[in-house]
Amino acid sequence: MKKDNAKIKVLLSKLGLDVHNRGLITVAKMLRDAGMEVIYLGNALPDEIINIAIQEDADVIGVSSLGGAHLTLGKDLIDLATEKGLKESMAFIIGGIFSIEDHQKLKEVGFDEVFTAGATQEEIVGAIQSLVA
Ligand code: B12
What we know:
Blueprint: E1 9-15, H1 22-33, E2 37-44, H2 46-56, E3 60-65, H3 70-83, E4 91-96, H4 100-109, E5 113-115, H5 121-132
Parallel strand pairs: 1-2, 1-3, 3-4, 4-5
Helix pairs in contact: 2-3, 3-4
Bound molecules: cobalamin (B12).
């Protein structure tokens, strides 16, 4: 059954040591404005993100990566989620500045949705609603 926005819990984190924070702060505000519950971790590594998502029983993990580590740390995150059996119960989304090739690779790695510069509130909120439905 589809959850209403107020019940959707999204864990947001920057991947690794990435310093870019404007995009993720913008996304956090978009999701809060849409009524979702947002947990903002700041910087974290894949194992920390996965452990906290389990503790918090998150519906969605959203990570941001603009510093160039999206393929390596992104794959580590999805591999760990798969290992822990979370891929069926949580949705995984990633945003940042990616080439078209990397956009495709991130989908192949296992991210459910990939967002890049200019992604709107409608696109992000709509995608999360569909994934959680
Ligand atoms: C500002 C900036 C910086 C600032 C960051 C300040 C800060 N506190 O954020 C400073 C000067 C510190 C910086 C440093 C670096 N930067 Co810089 N930076 C930028 C710049 C100019 C703008 C980024 C920005 O704030 N955009 C505004 C926000 C609102 O947009 P956004 O982040 O794209 O977010 C949107 C979407 O991407 C998406 N999104 C993003 N994250 C997420 C997460 C989720 C869950 C979802 C759903 C959506 C989502 O939704 C957002 C809203 O639409 C970009 C160039 C550009 N035009 O994008 C380069 C850029 C991102 N930087 C770049 C680089 C290489 C670096 C450095 C590595 C440079 C260096 N050699 O030191 C370092 C990073 C070091 C590190 N450890 O991370 C590259 C990245 C290339 C890549 N991806 O491979 C870029 C693209 C510049 C370039 N053309 O080469 N940077």
